[in-house]
Amino acid sequence: MIQVSLSPAIRRVILIVLASSAVSAARYAAAQQPAPATPPAPAAINTHSRWVTALVFSPDGNTLATSGGESLLYRPGDVMLWDLATGQQKAALAGHGTIVWAVAFSPDGQTLATAGYDGTLKLWDVPGAKEKASWPAHKHWIMAVAFSPDGQTLATASEDTTIKLWNLAAVPPAEKLTLKGHTGAVTSVVFSADGQQILSGSGDKTAMLWNPAAPDPLKKLEGHSDTVSAVAFVLDGKTPATGSYDRTVKLWNPAEGKEIAALAGHHNWISAMRVAADGKTLATASHDRTVKVWNLDTKQATFTLDGFKSTVWGVAFSPNGQMLATGSHSDSLKVWKAVAAWADAFPAPPPAAPAAAVEKPAEKPAEQAAPVAK
Length: 374
Description:
Layout: H1 8-31, E1 51-57, E2 63-69, E3 77-83, E4 89-92, E5 100-105, E6 111-116, E7 120-125, E8 130-136, E9 142-147, E10 153-158, E11 162-167, E12 174-180, E13 186-191, E14 198-202, E15 206-210, E16 217-222, E17 228-234, E18 239-244, E19 248-253, E20 258-264, E21 270-275, E22 281-286, E23 291-295, E24 300-305, E25 312-317, E26 323-328, E27 333-337, H2 340-343, E28 372-373
Antiparallel strand pairs: 1-2, 2-3, 3-4, 5-6, 6-7, 7-8, 9-10, 10-11, 11-12, 13-14, 14-15, 15-16, 17-18, 18-19, 19-20, 20-28, 21-22, 22-23, 23-24, 25-26, 26-27
């Protein structure tokens, strides 16, 4: 038998095509029989119906930026800014020739970085809603972008197996370092809160810790059995967390490079992951069409959002933890209000947003799956 090895990026493309076909088939089948009862879902912001592959809240919590498009190839990508107070679109930032897969706000909220399938990186002036820089950062798919805490450096993670660090103080921005060590597509990248380390995930089934001033990895984190698709620093801001196509989240001891806990509960690939400002509340999005919210103190899933019609590609917490945004291609963009099951650690919520913008989901019992302690 001939076996063909596919890169994580190609596997993801194939899955997108299959998922889109499956959604169409499911809609046809549903039309032939009475629709089953479903739990209440939040209202989509301004009836947005485009693919949302990544999303992020501005540092002040007033704006949500989303990226995506209409299809993976051949059609222009989307970058949109949304007003969280009204649920209305503030701006559409046009210019990407293909789907936009990554988006990040600078720490001061004045600059937005976007990148995607064609390897082009763009910087946008947020107040003016206009492009201020654009260049071909990689020859292949850019799968993730991240700002350093001081806003002076931008990291781009690519299908070409590298991470590039860009000096944003230079005019125009200039490459200052390329991080090499992964042997598969680099799917995810993030800076630690103090800016002293970078964490990356890859299709080579590993995560790596880096010194932003050196080209070689500090530590390789090995233990996942499939692509590491999402990364974050959690708890004290120095503990690496990794999400994988093997359906688990793992926490690591950064000094020893050893796994300290694993969280199991998803039934398909983990596509995205984001930690809240408290460091101990983690949201994971999955191809199983759910989002889970985890308490990292107890290592338990405390809440599950389900009922999505397709893969959930992106997830993000608002800075105060009172809202959770999710993005997919069938359900597009949704913003959820925090509920007691996973918001107890945060301050009292601000005045409720209009019903057209957000809507509270139905509570589900807490998940009981126990973590695998190491």
